[in-house]
Amino acid sequence: MEKRIPLEYRKFYHIYNRGINGDRIFFGKENYLHFLKLYEIYINSIADTFAWCLMSNHFHFLIRIKDEEQIGFLNPENGKTKDYDNKWKTFFPDKDYTKYNISDLKKPIPNKQFSHLFDAYAKAYNKRFNRFGSLFEKNFERKNIDNERYMRNLILYIHNNPVKHGITSSTIEYPWTSYLSILSKKVSNLKREQVLSWFENSENFEYSHKTIDNYDDIIEYIID
Question: Other C-beta atoms within 10 Å of 119: how many?
Fold first, then answer.
């Protein structure tokens, strides 16, 4: 069995996975929103997000693992987050570190954060639909991205995934991607300014998404 590479600090990754045996992992708005809420809990603290797409049986994310010094320590006092009642541990401000011996404090491991996300969602999903067993493929896929051309192509690919799979004829019509959020002025954790800079501006960002004629042109290094 292929051993998955660890997620390294400061590197960009294409993260993707699907339901086991290609089964559905999202059935409606409730499922999509819950997954995104859990994503905020487990992933926002360890990674920056640049693009995403949730499909009925799979998903894609473009992320960058933060610098190690940007990531806080796990709270050793409790197993609950500030805003959500669950078994994962929250981070706490630098001013509180003085209460502990630094050598005793631990930081989250990026790979495990994604595993915690998938486990938490699968638990809620199984309870909601009265099912048992694994929901996702065992090892989530991750591919390091090391150049800007690849980055742009991947963003186009992620946002046009619903078009590729025949779900919609236009990127703008599908609600479960980051496309509209990147163009919005609303507060967001997405790194939209960086994304738009890769396309020079919002006009070129929109134009690039509308003028894809052949997906073979953008998937040379991208695996679905």
Answer: 18
**Residues in CB range of 20: below 8 A, 6 or more apart:** 133, 134, 135, 136, 137
How buried is 100 (Cβ within 10 angstroms: 0-12 exposed, 13-18 middle, 19+ buried)? middle
Q: How far is 64 from 53, CA to CA, in rounded Å?
A: 16
Half-sphere exposure (Cβ direction) of 195: Cα atoms closer than 13 Å: 31
CATH architecture under which domain 12-71+108-217 falls: 2-Layer Sandwich (3.30)
For 92-148, write each residue's pLDDT tens digit: 544 555 666 666 678 889 999 999 999 999 999 999 999 999 999 888 999 999 999
For residues 15 and 140, is the Cβ–Cβ distance under 8 A?
A: yes
Residues 59 and 16 sit within 8 Å (Cβ to Cβ): yes
pTM (two decimals): 0.86
Torsion over CA: 178, 33, 10, 223 (sign): negative
